[in-house]
Amino acid sequence: MTTPVTVTVTGAAGMIGYSLLFRTGAGQLLGASTPVRLRLLEIPQAVRVAEGVAMELDDCAFPLLMDVEVTDDPRVAFDGANVALLVGARPRGKGMERADLLGANGAIFGPQGRAINDAAADDVRVLVVGNPANSNALIAASNAPDVPKERFSAMTRLDHNRAMSQLARHAGVHVSQVRRMSIWGNHSATQYPDVFHTVVGGRPGVELAEDTAWLAGEFIPTVAQRGAAIIEARGSSSQASAADAIIDHVRDWYLGTPEGDWTSAGVWSTGHYGVPDGLMCSFPVTSDGKGWSVVDGLEIAPFSRERIDASIAELVEEREAVRALGLV
Ligand code: NAX
Predict the structure, then answer these.
(1) Distance 88 CA to ligand 1 centre (A)
(2) What is the CATH number of domain 5-154?
(3) Rounded to an integer, what distance in angstroms lies between the CA atom of residue 8 and that of residue 79?
(4) For NAD(+), which residues are the binding ones (predicted)?
(5) Is 201 annotated as a binding residue?
(6) What are the sequence ranges of the domains in the chain?
(7) Whose CA, among 50, 156, 285, 324, lies 20 to 30 Å from 254?
(8) The domain 157-319 is classified under which CATH number: 3.40.50.300, 3.40.50.10190, 3.90.110.10, 3.40.50.2300?
């Protein structure tokens, strides 16, 4: 058996945690030959619930799960972490302004970034899921100066998967027949799901993109509003699909994206496609198992450019707001 990988999950007593932790224990995160040690981080008021989840994990008797530890101390939680999944965040409360939300999350992701910097393993990779995911990832990365920025990413994989399913349904093919979807920008209502470079059942997706009424009037809003539609139907936000997207993101990051395809992730911009340096922006990306690379050289149609720019503008505004609060 190979050396166990230490996986730290924050917000472990939350809804996403309840799906994610059992799939991780079952070996779905890093593959069936990689044993894992789980470290669960929660706020003090939710530690008891996380302990209950740890008891259930024990009761599964997973062959690949070596150990589960619950703590409310980020230094303990991230000690030796190889994979850090930052799921716990402060939700927007009633009457909360954006600056309040960014400030409240800065108080979570700043200290967590510092704890990762000081305590995590040298090879740590960090996925930020808790919203606002891109800005929270920016805050965590900025507070971990010794960890290379490319080891941080923000999750847009759920948006990516949603866009794949919507496109497949529209084209009348199975979702396995859709390749090369791209989510650009922020994980927010301004995100841009791009079908121009897709291949759908062997057909270039750009043919479907000619129907701009469908694209602008149906496809893009359906993908961007899917989270709200789930809340309306279930009475609570996406849980299992979010956990599934985390699994997909991490697997592709560690095991590599399939040949001839790519995925989407929020990564630290180094200026690709005119995105300002140092923004945590979603791009089409591939992984060779060692890290993400932005897919280069795509021709961006004016229809896409306008929407990508709008989402980038929102990310720039968020960065200015977190800078003004002294969080980055
Ligand atoms: P829950 O409210 O069920 O759980 C969040 C958990 O985080 C709670 O148990 C809370 O005690 C814990 N927590 C809060 N502050 C913490 C801290 N400082 N350290 C450790 N734990 C802390 O939310 P859930 O449905 O699990 O969603 C978690 C986050 O994912 C939310 O911010 C949500 O908005 C975000 N999402 C992001 C998605 C993405 O695609 N990037 C999609 C799904 C999801 O909406």
Answers:
(1) 4
(2) 3.40.50.720
(3) 9
(4) 11-17, 105, 112, 129-131
(5) no
(6) 5-154, 157-319
(7) 50
(8) 3.90.110.10
pLDDT band at 1 (very low <50, low <70, confident <90, very high): low
What tens digit of pLDDT does each residue of 245-303 get?
A: 999 999 999 999 999 999 999 999 999 999 999 999 999 999 999 999 999 999 999 99
Active-site pick, 170, 174, 187, 249: 187
The rounded Å distance from CA 15 to ligand 1 centre is 8
Query: How far apart, in Å, do the first and last CA atoms of the chain sit?
Result: 41
Question: Is ipTM > 0.90 here?
Answer: yes
> Taking CB atoms and a 6 Å cutoff, what residues make up the pocket around ligand 1?
10-11, 13-17, 41-43, 46, 87-90, 108, 129-131, 133, 155, 158, 187, 237-239, 242
Residues 281 and 267 sit within 8 Å (Cβ to Cβ): yes
Side-chain half-sphere CA neighbours of 20 within 13 A? 31
- 197 catalytic residue (yes or no): no
pLDDT tens digit string along 25-36?
Answer: 999 999 999 999
157-319 shares the fold of 5-154: no
Cβ(242)–Cβ(9) below 8 Å: no
Q: How many whole angstroms separate alpha carbon 41 and alpha carbon 46?
A: 9
